[in-house]
Amino acid sequence: xxxxxxxxxxxxxxxxxxMPYKPDMxxxxxxxxxxxxxSLHPDLSIPTTEIPGYPAxxxxxxxxxxxxxxxxxxxxxxxxGRIHYYEGYTLRQxxxxxxxxxxxxxASIIITNAAGGINSNFSPGDLMLTTGFNSMFLKxxxxxxxxxxxxxxRNALLELRETHLFKNVKEAALSTLTDLxxxxxxxxxxxxxxxxxxxxxIRGTGADAVGMSSVHEGVYAVHLGMDIxxxxxxxxxxxxxxxxxxxxxxxxxxxxxxxxxxxxxLKKSIELA
Length: 273
Ligand code: HPA
Description:
Rossmann fold; 23% strand
């Protein structure tokens, strides 16, 4: 029994009744990447508002649908739009997509996001495969979510390079000629972007990119024993790294610009998984 099973029993029962097949893999699509699911011609698309107890998405670029898709012999469950902690939902609510993927039977999950670039070798439009999380601002909250009595896999997350999916994504980058960067993703709670002073601090921790999602999803997925990979679209220079002022429009504009490359990388990663 997972820690979320009781709280979300209706949503879980709904998905088990409604899903056309048991998915092999799940994906969570971040800002601006929503169209990926539609391009794969889903067998079933469920507005998340129809899932009992599913939090409503409030962020532009996150449309809130769950798709069941078959691609290259793989059955996929794709969450278009995500639930952010900064929207005022509890951490448990934010983890519902991961819980549903696990309960539906998906053995692995690819988590995508948009992030601000901190590493001076990164430019907006680059894609970054996460090698590690910095979740120092989430640790206590996350600890309360891990079921007593289950193996504690939190430390496994110190090294994301060891997952099967990490290797698949790297191989996919080689075969699609994608210049895939690698680096550490630093979680901030948001909702506002960081100040330049905060970015200087974050840079000092060794982080390569900063964002407001994914870490809790990844930690929980690993805790449940799922194989994971986390890919960021570097949508902007983090505050103070360049002189341009940051706005959410830039995040979606960059995601749109690199959509074709990102989609090709995701498709190849799925094929190789
Ligand atoms: N900071 C935090 N989250 C983000 C950013 C950023 O610069 N860009 C996209 N998501």
